[in-house]
Design goal:
alpha+beta; Beta-Lactamase; 2 domains; four-stranded antiparallel β-sheet; 4 helices
Length: 181
């Protein structure tokens, strides 16, 4: 029954063959299978290692936090460059804070209303739509501070946005810092 079977060297892998004597026979086709298996496992493990290395870099929480802070600082500075809503807003009807008219020209009345409104820091954060802390200031060309609002704090992660505005026919800089507390 098994007379035509070829036997191979003992270095090959044993595979059971069902026979009445209960002996194991060596089969030549087992060698490529074991080599293929070893290569497949190696490739699979390599792919898994690279995937987790790449995924951990992509979803780095610190990078996501900084991105959120950067978006907040830019959103606050963008809001300040608008007229606000309603256009003639005051502390009792404000929906969106804005201190500029005619593009990038600061409206002195709205600036004063914003500074007064900033005494309720949490309300201004709500109106700006941020959970993060912020600090805002306007500087003249010499670096002197014209106005400031928010909380002047420190953090290991700080994002900023700067805009140029016109005040009394002179260019001033608006700077907004945002950070997590």
């Amino acid at each position: 029954m098994f007379r035509n079977k070829k036997f191979v060297s003992s270095s090959q892998i044993f595979f059971p063959v069902n026979n009445s004597s209960g002996k194991f026979f060596l089969r030549k086709d087992a060698q490529p299978w074991s080599l293929d298996f070893i290569i497949a496992v190696f490739l699979f493990m390599t792919v898994v290692v690279f995937y987790f290395k790449y995924a951990s870099e992509q979803f780095d929480e610190t990078a996501l936090d900084f991105e959120e802070l950067q978006m907040d600082s830019e959103a606050i500075s963008d809001s300040l460059l608008t007229q606000g809503y309603p256009v003639d807003w005051n502390s009792s009807n404000v929906k969106r804070i804005g201190i500029c008219d005619n593009g990038y020209a600061i409206n002195q009345t709205k600036l004063e209303q914003f500074i007064a409104l900033s005494s309720d820091y949490n309300l201004t954060r709500k109106l700006f739509g941020t959970r993060n802390q912020y600090y805002f200031f306007i500087t003249n060309p010499e670096g002197g501070i014209l106005a400031q609002a928010g909380v002047n704090g420190t953090s290991s992660m700080l994002a900023s946005a700067e805009r140029v505005v016109l005040y009394n026919n002179t260019l001033y800089r608006i700077t907004v810092y945002a950070w997590k507390s």
